[in-house]
Amino acid sequence: MARLALAAFCIVALAATSSAMTFTEYGIGMACTAYNSACWYENLKQFPNTNAKGFMKCTNSCNFQKEQALKQSGEDRQKMSFTQGVTQYGMKDLPSEFASNCNSHLKSGSATTSDDESDVLNDQHQEYPFRAFAYCIMKTVRSKYGDIAIEAVRNEKTHSLKHWKQTLLDRDNEFRALHGSPPFKRVTDLDNAAQKWADKNAAECNMYHSKNDDAGRQWRGKGTGESISSGGGSDEKENAAYLASNGWYEEYALYPFPGGIKDANDPRFQHVGHFTQTVWKGTEYVGYGYAYNPKCSPYTHYIAARYSPAGNMAGGFQENVVPRQ
């Protein structure tokens, strides 16, 4: 059962003039939006080599430095604190080309730049401190991965948020396709069952599996499969969805291909059971639930998934869990 930590993701208002924030606060926020979008694409959206731990490391970096900077009195001190913190710590948590390309803009804190990444950052072409740095970050993402990366940032981070259930379904199906498995179909009954279990975990501040013979695990007269995930931080369903699906699939690295395993009694199963259920060819239907309880510590959010027909059945691993194609 993978416990995945999730930190607050920096989303700022689109117009500094519409709130009480100063342009320095707005600029620091936009810098974090760009930085965290790069962190998200590099580690969560990247496919198929995802890195949940890498995401948590870099997304915490900018958010923490932002918090520290905004505690300072005066805009000059805020800029200095943010610059020093992100230069010293944050840029080390992104691939090296981001620091090489963008550190000079970070240190200057300038709004002046010949680049134009206003559309992806959705900043209405305003001028603000650290705009050159924010645009440089997005330009570096574009140069590394092309327009497909920029569109992903626009569609899931800066212009709109992709629904967390759709994120889970799409990402699980991407992983299934790698192994020749047909796509899952989401059904309301399984969504409802998964939601009840996520709610129960959150209410008890404890992530644990239901029993196979529980009444809530039955659908159409048969038992269902189950995966669960938990993490800490703020109520960010979209990031939690990626962390859960990616974390389940990252168990792929531990699966003993080509021989595989025979059943859940194999001692190796406890380390790969989420992965095998994700790609199990015979599973057709899925449902997802998400619950958040800020009173829980250190894990505040809980995700549950239910599958039918259930995977991880004895004697079925060779047929249903195959290497990447």
From TrEMBL:
Stored Pfam families: CAP
InterPro entries membership: CAP_dom (IPR014044), CAP_sf (IPR035940), CRISP-related (IPR001283)
SCP domain location: 163-315
UniProt region (Disordered), positions on chain: 213-236
Keyword Ribosomal protein: no
Signal peptide: 1-20
Keywords from the named record: Signal
SMART domains named in the record: SCP (SM00198)
Keyword Signal: yes
PANTHER family: CYSTEINE-RICH SECRETORY PROTEIN-RELATED
Protein name: SCP domain-containing protein
Source organism: Orchesella dallaii
Top-level taxonomy: Eukaryota, Metazoa, Ecdysozoa, Arthropoda, Hexapoda
